[in-house]
Amino acid sequence: LCGMAVVVGGLMFGGRGAILEVAMVGLLLSGLGMMAMDMLGKQPYLREVRGVSVYIKVALLAAAWYLPAARIPLLFVVIVLSGYVSHMPAKQRYFVVFGPKSDGPK
Known about the structure:
The protein is mainly alpha-helical.
């Protein structure tokens, strides 16, 4: 959350250069680290809605890296998607999108 605030705030207020690149790399690495911790806790994580949203967010972050003109809109999509998925009901968030179905949250 802090990394996203630094990146989006920096971009919106005209920040440029290495500090924003470092913040974007930190944002990506922290997201991958949190994903790894979630994967350890529950195997079907990457097949559930919450895991699939991570694939989408990583793709959007990569696109933001390579498409500087579209960075702010892409990062806003990441923010909205993150908030939406994290606040949706557990039955929807833990829904298995593909592969064998699980019992869902207890």
